[in-house]
Amino acid sequence: MDKALQTMIENMPEKTGKKLEEWIQILHKENFAKHSMAVNYLKAEHGVTHGFANTIVTLSKEVTESPDDLVVNQYAGKELLKPIYEMLLLEINKLGDDIVITPKKGSVSLIRKKQFALIKPATKTRIDLGLKLKGVEIQGRLEGSGPFGTMCTHRIQLKSISEVDTEVIGWISKAYEASV
Question: Residue 15: helix, strand or coil by DSSP?
């Protein structure tokens, strides 16, 4: 999340009288068909300024699934990959307590000050671990970013829990250390 948006969310209770979560509950009860209808409702009925109303409506659409639901849905039909995901998280959490784990619809971002890794169940038999390792040459199991494009500089394909080994943990650690 960028700093401007984070600041807006932090200032929301003072500027609008309610926290983002409270506004989202209000909007979900109303169930508007169009974005503009929800924005106009917040402005007319609650006196929210346009900028805050637009932000609230936009973010309310993103909060339809819990983080746990997002992960469950990623591994639906790919349940054999879940132990690999859990092992990666176990190892990543050992790196420090400043890691934010952010599930999205198709992947899980791992963020320190910046995103340093991405875990994506790519197929029914493979997880792609994306890493940000600027200036590191492709070598061994460390490939080019492939489908991650510019989100990551490299990827490692994982097909079994045994592949989450010291080499993989070492690359994750390097990406973590570089993300300050």
Answer: helix
Q: Give the DSSP per-residue string, 36-88.
A: HHHHHHHHHHH---HHHHHHHHHHHHH-SS-HHHHHHHHTTT-GGGHHHHHHH
108 and 134 in one domain?
Answer: yes
Within this chain, do residues 106 and 167 fall inside the same structural domain, yes or no? yes
Let me know: does 132 contact 150? Beta carbons within 8 Å.
no
**Separation between Cα atoms, residue 128 and residue 114, nearest integer Å:** 19
pTM of the predicted protein model:
0.67
Same domain membership, residue 21 and residue 88 = no
14-64 pLDDT, tens per residue?
999 998 888 988 888 887 878 999 999 999 999 999 999 999 988 887 655
Pull the structure tokens for residue 15. Answer: 């500027």
Instruction: Please check whether residues 51 and 80 belong to one and the same domain.
Output: no
Residue 103 CB contacts under 8 Å (≥ 6 apart), including other chains: 67, 68, 70, 71, 74
